[in-house]
Amino acid sequence: MAIAGLAAAILLSSAGPLATAASSASCGQDGAAVETAEVAYFAEHGAYGRMEQLVPRYLSRPSTLHAITLTAGDYTIRPIGSCRRS
Q1: 48, 74 contact by CB (below 8 A)
Q2: pLDDT (tens digit, 9 = 90+) per residue, 31-44?
Q3: Residue 66 · residue 79 · CB < 8 Å
Q4: Rounded CA separation 9/61 (Å)
Q5: Do the Cβ atoms of 68 and 76 come closer than 8 Å?
Q6: Residue 81: which region, alpha, beta or left (left: phi > 0; alpha: psi -120 to 50)?
Q7: What is the 3-state secondary structure (H, E, C) of 4-67?
Q8: Model pTM?
Q9: What angle do CA 62, 48, 51 make, to 5 degrees?
Q10: For 50-80, what is each residue's pLDDT tens digit?
């Protein structure tokens, strides 16, 4: 029993960095998808779009990991939710 408990504790403590790496990868992929959607939207419309305008043509669904802020002729993608902590 003690050996199984020790093995479980080691496994759980080593899973933390893996979960963080997976979360970071998801954040990076999502940010890249939003960036690509903005570029494609701009190519068709001559302006950048709000998240709602990017769905469903440029993104399959709104991002829950990034938000878009539009300014005069430009945009900013900022992390939200679990990406904000990454």
Answers
A1: yes
A2: 999 999 999 999 99
A3: yes
A4: 38
A5: yes
A6: left
A7: HHHHHHHHHHHHHHHHHHHHHHHHHHHHHHHHHHHHHHHHHHCCCCCHHHHCCCCCCCCCCCEE
A8: 0.70
A9: 15
A10: 999 999 999 999 999 999 999 998 999 999 9
